[in-house]
Fold this protein.
Amino acid sequence: MSPKRGDDVPPPPIGNEWRLRFATNDAAKGWGDLCTEAPGNTRRRYEALRTGPLSTNDPDRQHRLRGRLATATLGGTEYPQWEYEVTAGGRVRYLVDQPRRTVHLVHASTRHPKDTDS
């Protein structure tokens, strides 16, 4: 998604930080909703994704998805899919492109996704 007038300016990654990108318009909208509803938590998750999208230090909040959700395809390439709990119900799902050190946000919402309930 190209930036436009009125959009926030994202800081560029520096040092060993990862680049964060929206893979879908819905993820961009959901991220905005999370920023409004829980700005402190969302900011902490943002920083955590910039520095350690593959971290397993807090598996209750940040983990790779399993089963049919373990991977997802973006632009014809399959990537590992992870999820980060922002609030009790809010989640961010992302794909990790290790060679490009890029995190692609594919889902962000203030509500828990229903596809993991089975």
The beta strands are 19-22, 62-64, 71-74, 77-85, 91-97, 102-109. The chain is about 20% helix and 30% strand. The mean pLDDT is 92.
